[in-house]
Design brief:
- This protein is an alpha/beta fold and about 190 residues long.
- It has one domain: 3-Layer(aba) Sandwich (Rossmann fold).
- The protein contains five helices and eight strands; from the N terminus they run βββαββαβαααββ.
- It has a four-stranded antiparallel beta sheet, with helices on one face. Strands 3-8-7-6 form a four-stranded parallel beta sheet.
- The C terminus is likely disordered.
């Protein structure tokens, strides 16, 4: 798999007043690469993730996955088949349980609920949050929410993981030997 960014430009603004956030970025990534993009707050890291994840298609340039321009693809299918998101602010649904939040990306898959639950439990155990599987998100600590977000990002076995500050609230417990290695980490 090759992800290629060509001459990417992203601007924000209106009334002929625009600010370039991403200015003519070109780079390629191969399978199994771990990439960290560093920069100060507001420099465009999250914007880049949103574009790579198919959440924003208002940009100039191209993003190609295996020589297919994602801008002209079915973005819902692109995200479902290729992308695992781990958002900086988690984007969890407070009134759902932990396990139901994790299952959301595969909710409409044509597999049984039992299989979906089995996949979720695999990540609940790896991330040391199995015991809170039935709790509501509003009952969790920041670190627990972050682990739920990571499990949700991994459940569909994505080829690309887009992680926006994925480990800021996590700690290493003596029972957690899970190694998380996203392709992109901001």
């Amino acid at each position: 798999m090759i992800l290629r960014i060509n001459n990417l430009i992203k601007e924000y603004g209106k009334n002929n007043t625009y600010q370039k956030v991403l200015d003519d970025i070109s780079i390629s990534f191969k399978s199994n690469e771990f990439v960290c993009i560093l920069g100060e707050s507001g420099c465009g890291k999250s914007t880049l993730l949103n574009i790579l994840g198919g959440l924003d298609n208002d940009y100039k340039g191209s993003i190609n996955l295996n020589n297919i321009n994602i801008k002209y693809s079915n973005l819902d299918k692109y995200r479902k088949d290729n992308i695992g998101f781990i958002f900086q602010n988690f984007n969890l649904i407070d009134n759902l349980s932990v396990i139901d939040n994790i299952i959301l990306p595969i909710e409409k898959d044509l597999i049984s609920y039992k299989e979906k639950r089995k996949r979720a439990i695999k990540y609940l155990k790896k991330l040391n949050i199995y015991l809170i599987k039935n709790k509501k998100i509003s009952e969790l600590s920041g670190g627990q929410k972050q682990r739920v977000a990571i499990a949700r990002g991994l459940i569909n076995n994505p080829s690309i993981i887009l992680a926006d500050e994925p480990t800021g609230a996590l700690f290493k417990s003596k029972n957690n030997n899970y190694s998380f290695k996203p392709l992109f980490s901001l």
